[in-house]
UniProtKB/TrEMBL annotation:
InterPro entries assigned to the protein according to its UniProt record, in alphabetical order: LysR-type_TF, LysR_HTH_N, LysR_subst-bd, WH-like_DNA-bd_sf, WH_DNA-bd_sf, YidZ_PBP2
Keywords: DNA-binding, Transcription, Transcription regulation
Domain annotation HTH lysR-type: ranges: 1-58
Family: Belongs to the LysR transcriptional regulatory family.
Identification of the protein by name: LysR family transcriptional regulator
Domain of life, per lineage: Bacteria
Pfam family, one: LysR_substrate
Length: 297
């Protein structure tokens, strides 16, 4: 059924007059009369009969008005986006795909921050899928956001630079290095524990050293950031970790924190989401919480 007919039906009920209904709907009287005929054909009932005081609804009309009014109010409310999101009352789960950098650096603060405002919301973290699959999962709503060093460059995806990640250098505290900047000679002599990279371009550290004709020694290759300071604490190896992790790792593993001997370029951290959820107030609120936690971390 044409939903416009239901709007005419409701206006006829309220005004009990074809003339007044046409005025309020900004339609001609013949148009309203034609709509009434279509309604009668669709329902198999007169719906309204003429009387001295105007149109009088039939019993069938009386049975229809409640459900019709409720249905139209829901439709109009949805179109006006009247839905409100109250974090403290919400019961919902949000899914993020991110690597261990995000998991160690931001997720503890994000969970704590959200717990204070919205105790009924659960944050679920999973690994970053391959690019094509990441797009599909964002589009379907299976993922609310992907936070990664690479944007999800697909139609309908928003990519936002969330932060710039810089590196600090950690080594045994018992080395008693007093200067903030790590000495270059020791940096090149001592083996490093590094994280395995998914591509073959090499890390920003190795690229920067190579530009200066320098090369560091690799003593171990691990799969995540957490393993790096653990290996460094046992072996005396050097490790370079994102600055947001450095203080925590240094405290946990008796390491000292230093600026690298050479200034390395920062690396962008992107947040990606699908634009089809931009009108969802809960989704928008969740992304804002991520932005806030990253900005103050």
């Amino acid at each position: 059924m044409d939903l416009n007919l239901l709007a005419v039906f409701m206006m006829l009920w309220d005004t009990r007059s074809v003339t007044r209904a046409s005025d309020r709907l900004a339609l001609t009287q013949p148009a309203v009369s034609h709509a009434l005929r279509r309604l009668r054909d669709a329902t198999g009932d007169e719906l309204f009969v003429n009387a001295k005081g105007g149109l009088v609804p039939t019993s069938r009309s009386e049975a229809l008005i409640g459900p019709v009014r409720e249905a139209l109010e829901k439709i109009y409310g949805a179109l006006r986006d009247e839905e409100t999101f109250v974090p403290s009352l919400a019961r919902r789960e949000f899914n993020i795909a991110a690597g261990d950098l995000v998991e160690f650096s931001f997720i503890p603060e994000l969970v704590e921050h959200i717990r204070q405002q919205a105790p009924g919301i659960v944050v679920r973290l999973g690994p970053v899928p391959e690019e094509g699959l990441a797009y599909q999962r964002l589009e379907s709503g299976d993922l609310d956001a992907v936070i990664s060093g690479q944007p999800v460059k697909e139609m309908g995806i928003h990519d936002e630079t969330l932060a710039q990640i810089d590196l600090l250098t950690l080594v045994w505290k018992r080395e008693n290095l007093s200067k903030p900047r790590f000495p270059l000679a020791l940096y090149l002599k001592r083996p490093h524990v590094v994280i395995r990279l998914p591509d073959r371009q090499g890390s920003i550290v190795d690229q920067t050293l190579a530009q200066r004709g320098l090369q560091r020694q690799i003593g171990a290759v691990v799969q995540n950031f957490m393993a790096m300071p653990m290996v460094a604490a046992r072996t005396g190896f050097i490790c370079n970790v994102p600055s947001r992790m450095a203080g925590t790792f240094a405290e946990l593993f008796e390491l000292s924190v230093h600026e690298p001997p050479i200034a390395f370029d920062t690396s962008p951290l992107f947040m990606s989401w699908h634009r089809r959820f931009d009108a969802d107030p809960a989704h928008a609120w969740f992304l804002d919480q991520i932005r806030f936690v990253v900005s103050v971390a």
